[in-house]
Every structure is written in structure tokens, then in C-alpha cells.
């Protein structure tokens, strides 16, 4: 498990937070059920490395004063201009903690339909799920290699592959489909008809 070292933060003045950032550190908090919220600081470079390694929903070990706790990155604030991370919120978790998370949906492969002129359209780029912390996937992959034109994958179609998660969407919501692409000549004819009708 990736480890992130933290220091206790006792001064909450804006000037102190600015000094922390100038020193390459980020102010942060740790919260969770049945624990007091703790104010900490972490190194910016260490955070960025851990975020790359574990992903948006990964669990990491936070080491504070020699004591470790498992946490997840729940939120962070960026500077609107520089995109620099200004503040981070960590949620303390254990194997029994159920949480809500947004998980990216990735379409994998090139479909049979695309090879004959179709186009892959993705309607849901992330799914809202509820699961125990250890069961949250970093991403949801959908293999579209065998999809023909007209083939659609709905939320219900992937539930069996992610049975340890509750997917908080209607079963009939379409995640992606392989759609038919009109030839340019047909598109031109349709445009001409609209122009002729005065639309």
C-alpha cells in the first residue's frame, strides 16, 4: 500500500497556509465516522505521486506521528488559474466502510461496427457507485470489440461483473452504443431537403 507522510497542523491562519504552499506543502484534513477531524499538512510532490499510483478512489496509508491509518482522497481544491492544489480532504476508512464514489467508464477495443463505418458513442463517462472501500474499482472497463452497429450496453449489462458494488443508475440507462454513420451523400441530401423546406 502506498504511504503518505503527514505532519500535524495547529495554525489555521491564511498566512500559515500560504507559507506551507511556498514550502511545497499542502494543508489538509482527515475525517471519518467516530473520529475527530484532524488538521495536517503533506508534501505536494508526495501527494501527486500517490495520486498517480493509486488513482482517484485508491486507498493509501497516511502516516501521522508514527501512527498509520487507511484513508481515501475525497476532495481537493484547485487554484482556478494555476490549477495548483490548495487543500485536500481525506476520509479515514476500513474494510467495512461503505462509501459513494464516482468511477470512470473506459471503452476498450475497436468494435466490429466501427470497422465497417460505425461510430462508438459514449453517454455515461462515469458511474456513481456505493461499495466497501476495498471493492471500489479504479475504473470500469467495457470491452466493445465484438459490438456490431446498433449494439448498446446498458447499466444492467455490467452489473454481474461488478456484483460487489451497487451501481446507482437505472438499469435501462445506456452507457455506450455503436451507432450508424450516414454517408456524406445522404447527409447532403438531408441538408438540401431542410433548406428547400425553409427550415
TrEMBL record:
Residue ranges occupied by any Large ribosomal subunit protein bL25 beta domain in the UniProt entry: 98-179
InterPro entries assigned: Rbsml_bL25/Gln-tRNA_synth_N, Ribosomal_bL25/Gln-tRNA_synth, Ribosomal_bL25_b-dom, Ribosomal_bL25_C, Ribosomal_bL25_long, Ribosomal_L25_dom, Ribosomal_uL5_bac-type
UniProt-recorded Gene Ontology molecular function terms: 5S rRNA binding; structural constituent of ribosome
Gene Ontology CC entries for this record: cytosolic large ribosomal subunit
Keywords per UniProt: Ribonucleoprotein, Ribosomal protein, RNA-binding, rRNA-binding
rRNA-binding recorded as keyword: yes
Large ribosomal subunit protein bL25 L25 domain: residues covered: 4-90
GO process terms (BP): translation
Superkingdom to which the source organism belongs: Bacteria
A Pfam family per the record: Ribosomal_L25p
Quaternary organization: Part of the 50S ribosomal subunit; part of the 5S rRNA/L5/L18/L25 subcomplex. Contacts the 5S rRNA. Binds to the 5S rRNA independently of L5 and L18.
Family: Belongs to the bacterial ribosomal protein bL25 family. CTC subfamily.
Record-linked NCBIfam families: bL25_bact_ctc, PRK05618.2-4
Annotated function: This is one of the proteins that binds to the 5S RNA in the ribosome where it forms part of the central protuberance.
Name of the protein: Large ribosomal subunit protein bL25
Gene behind this protein: rplY
Amino acid at each position: 500500500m502506498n504511504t503518505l507522510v503527514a505532519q500535524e497542523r495547529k495554525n489555521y491562519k491564511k498566512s500559515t497556509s500560504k507559507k506551507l504552499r511556498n514550502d511545497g506543502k499542502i494543508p489538509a484534513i482527515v475525517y471519518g465516522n467516530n473520529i475527530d477531524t484532524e488538521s495536517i499538512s503533506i508534501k505536494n510532490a508526495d501527494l501527486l505521486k500517490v495520486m498517480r499510483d493509486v488513482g482517484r478512489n485508491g486507498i493509501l496509508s497516511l502516516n501521522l506521528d508514527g501512527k498509520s491509518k487507511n484513508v481515501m482522497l475525497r476532495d481537493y481544491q484547485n487554484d482556478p488559474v494555476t490549477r495548483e492544489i490548495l487543500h485536500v480532504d481525506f476520509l479515514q476508512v476500513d474494510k467495512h466502510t461503505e462509501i459513494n464514489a464516482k468511477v470512470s467508464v473506459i471503452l476498450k477495443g475497436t468494435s466490429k461496427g466501427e470497422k465497417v463505418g460505425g461510430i462508438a458513442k459514449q453517454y455515461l463517462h462515469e458511474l456513481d457507485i456505493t461499495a466497501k472501500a476495498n471493492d471500489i474499482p479504479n475504473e470500469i472497463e467495457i470491452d466493445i470489440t465484438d459490438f456490431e452497429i446498433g449494439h448498446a450496453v446498458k447499466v444492467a449489462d455490467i452489473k454481474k461483473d461488478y456484483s460487489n458494488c451497487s451501481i446507482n443508475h437505472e438499469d435501462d440507462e445506456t452507457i455506450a452504443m455503436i451507432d450508424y454513420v450516414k454517408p456524406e451523400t445522404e447527409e447532403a441530401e438531408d441538408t438540401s431537403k431542410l433548406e428547400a423546406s425553409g427550415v
